[in-house]
Amino acid sequence: MEKEKLVKALENYFEDCKFRKRLNNKTIKAYKIDLNQFFEIVNNLDDEVKEINEYIHFLNKKYSKHKTVKRKLASVKAFYFYLEYEEIIEYSPFNKVRTKIKEPHVLQKTIQKENIEKIIQYLFDRVSSAKTDFQTIISIRNIAIIGLLFSTGIRISELCNIKVADINFNEKTLKIFGKGSKERILYIGNETVVDFCKKYKQLNEYVAENDYFF
What we know:
Order of helices and strands: HHHHHHHEEEHH
Helix content: 55-70%
Number of helices: 9
Largest sheet: 3 strands, antiparallel
Distance between the termini: 63 Å
Shape: elongated
Number of strands: 3
Oligomer: single chain
Radius of gyration: 28 Å
Strand content: 5-15%
Strand order of the largest sheet: 1-2-3
């Protein structure tokens, strides 16, 4: 594409982003930075597929964050989609380029032991300082919830779907239906957690009336 034609296409594209897509100025500014960087590096567009692949290699070398690489590629890809849609070019070269960036697997962050102890202590203090029956029930419920999460490692979504019949206090087990409705039985190894679950069930009359425990 000739330089003058490219400049005009970029101007029209940013106008489209502003008035049709209604993107904010911050987003449009980021698009401009990304596209200017792309066209500064890509000088010869005779073989656009090759140039884009080289640009991808450049981004991977320059930026350590995969999200930055993906965002910059998305900016350029969106511009070429616009050119194709407006029939300024016959087809987008991105149709022949594999742009999927494999992101590294990041381990989930864990809570430090000291913070866990502070959370548990705070929950027990709330039980002691409760002034009404309602406050007592809520405080005991919170200990039961946190206790089950820590002692069994279940997901939040699984905790929310626990039913009264899923907890066996005699055997100290918990029935969980995970992803794909897969059933598994977990052992509640902490006696204190079992006791607080029992207390919560005894004190909260609504538990007996509903299918769900929490």
